[in-house]
Amino acid sequence: MVRGRKDVVNFPVDDCHDGEGTIYVRQLLGYEPLLPVPGNPDDFDSLINFMHETTLPVGTTIGLHPHEGNEEIYYVVEGKGEMTVDGNTFVMEPGTACLTKSGSKHTFRNIADTELKIVVIEAVFDKKDKKNKPQH
């Protein structure tokens, strides 16, 4: 399976997880029902829920949210962001990855004067938690 930027909509998401501003999400593979973004829930046979490319314009944030029964990876492609996981804050630049484990909560914000692009991947531990709801 191959799906690229040209194949999916760069979908606007306002106040993601009660964050600030409008971010843009390209749901490249899989499906995240917590976001109003079309997806493909049958892409993965494994316990991966989704892989998407997210763009945070200047001044935007992804609000503080918990992870229970899943893990999520943020990988910075371009720009500069500030990640806070369980109260610990650090700067992420291109080539930096952060893993948020089950039982943790995190928030992320663009701290540069240019847009920030990240790749986000989420996987669950238990098949019953697989997000395979119908496509938007």
UniProtKB/TrEMBL annotation:
<dbReference type="Pfam" id="PF07883">
    <property type="entry name" value="Cupin_2"/>
</dbReference>
<feature type="domain" description="Cupin type-2">
    <location>
        <begin position="54"/>
        <end position="121"/>
    </location>
</feature>
<dbReference type="InterPro" id="IPR011051">
    <property type="entry name" value="RmlC_Cupin_sf"/>
</dbReference>
<dbReference type="InterPro" id="IPR051610">
    <property type="entry name" value="GPI/OXD"/>
</dbReference>
<dbReference type="InterPro" id="IPR014710">
    <property type="entry name" value="RmlC-like_jellyroll"/>
</dbReference>
<protein>
    <submittedName>
        <fullName>Cupin domain-containing protein</fullName>
    </submittedName>
</protein>
<dbReference type="InterPro" id="IPR013096">
    <property type="entry name" value="Cupin_2"/>
</dbReference>
<keyword id="KW-0479">Metal-binding</keyword>
